[in-house]
Hints:
The protein is α/β, with parallel strands linked by helices.
Amino acid sequence: MAPTLLEAPSPNFDQRRAPPDMLVLHYTGMKTGHEAVARLRDPDAKVSAHYVVNEDGSILRLVAEERRAWHAGRGAWQGQTDCNAASIGIEIVNPGHAFGYRPFPDDQIEAVIALVADIRSRWTIPDARIIAHSDLAPERKQDPGELFPWKQLAGAGHGLWFEPAAERVAALGAPLSPGDEGMGVIVLRAGLHRLGYGLKPGGDYDEETRLTVTAFQRHWRPSNIDGIADGETRARLVGLLQLASAESTTGVL
């Protein structure tokens, strides 16, 4: 069943050049949902999203999916640098890290899952292109953050998730951390790039690598967000790459 939508039109949009094939999840990051919606509808702010999901589970539609909302900003995913042009943006009401970050209520998450399912019934959006705002912009964004239940969303059939066996983690050896260099770091950077991050292959474990690993952990290893690529972080990355590759092989990507 399609979710019930409340109309709250925003003037902040322009035309798409192609159908959307990506979903970007955000938190609003303001003290109240009311303030966030007001900003997303303010023509002077020049920001918007297609949807806002309130904590009580109600959903506002601000911009039609056929239009290009202004939610993603500067960033990249899987080689796409105009992420606004390629994506549908969902803002999830939560004060965020700056104003008292807190768990997302069950009603809100159920509404997000229903909305994502409804959107995917209309557009071809691969699991590997259901991402966090922090995934496309690791150097400047944290949302929707480590408290968002990505595992639950994937369990409902939307997005990638992988949990490695203990022996797989142990086989990867010592952690990689800022300042490291060598083949292990080259493989790590290449894997993050292949998954979708804007991090270029090659190089050492620099600040950009640390921020990218942190973003990866916020999404796929939320129990430990330290920017250090330990065995579990790397094992999850390998597993996710295998899932994404399998999705690509079936013709979804």
